[in-house]
Amino acid sequence: MHLISDWHGLLPYVVFAVTFVSSILSGMTGGGGGYVITPFLIAIGLTPQQSVATIKIWALGMDSGSITAYRSRRTKNKSLALAMIAISVPVALATVFILRRLPNENLQLAMGWLNLLMIPILFIKHHEVTSRRRHEILQAVGFILIISLMLLQGIFASGVGSLINVVLIAVFGVSVLETNLIKRKASLVTDIIVIAGLAGSGLINFKLGLIGAAGGLLGGYIGSKFSLHEGERFARYALMVFMVVSGIWLIVTANT
């Protein structure tokens, strides 16, 4: 039976639980919830395109929760934050264009391999990354990398956003905590534009998305609060397990 049609059963509660726990882990590590939620949505009956589109509503809640958790902290690198927000607009428009045209089989296979290839990124210790912010050429390269990573995150709804944190720290000298805040603000703009762009496409399951947004809002807030203290190591290993399992499953079932 198609699980997403069973709205009188346990599915809404399961969706909330999965998005809530994933958002806590994502909030702790600065990203990675998409590694769990996207394969989950595919497993319960959505196509890869639908899962990526629907997860944007979860991301809207997740980003809002994280930003709220960091509300007492001011953004010191305001020009960089504004540049990231400006970049997010064309990236979001490109994401909408690509998602409407990318075949489901190719999208699922790419997500599977990306899950496996991104595992080492989880174990980069952001606070130990060395800043190179004085090199202007390197900063230009850094912006190109950020644009590419934002586009990948938009298309595959995965945790590649964690790499954006690394670039912000290593190239622009942003503090670990501020990278999360800047990235979440830019992602929030991307989420809104992509949701608006795909609203009439039939790709977004709004019922699942809104439940996920509730789980994301609460989990993102709690996880981000934890990130101000301890608990990051457990979250990284938990996400690693999800990435291995979901990555292999996505690859094996891509053409079935």
Secondary-structure blueprint:
Elements lengths: L10 H19 L4 H10 L4 H22 L8 H22 L4 H14 L18 H21 L4 H12 L3 H23 L7 H22 L4 H21 L4
Helix pairs in contact: 1-2, 1-9, 1-10, 2-3, 2-10, 3-8, 3-9, 4-6, 4-8, 5-10, 6-7, 7-8
Oligomer: single chain
- Assess the beta-strand content as a share of residues: under 5%
Low-confidence stretches: none
Total beta-strand segments: 0
Determine the fraction of residues in helical runs and give it as a percent range. over 70%
> How would you describe the shape?
globular
Structural class: mainly alpha
Backbone CA Rg:
17 Å
Order of helices and strands: HHHHHHHHHH
How many domains? The number is: 1
Give a structural overview.
With 256 residues, the chain is mainly α. It has one domain (6-252). Helices cover 73% and strands 0% of the residues. It has ten helices and no strands. It has helices at residues 11-29, 34-43, 48-69, 78-99, 104-117, 136-156, 161-172, 176-198, 206-227, 232-252. The protein is globular and about 50 Å long.
Summarize the structure.
This protein is mainly alpha-helical and 256 residues long. Helices cover 73% and strands 0% of the residues. It starts with 10 loop residues before the first helix and ends with a helix.
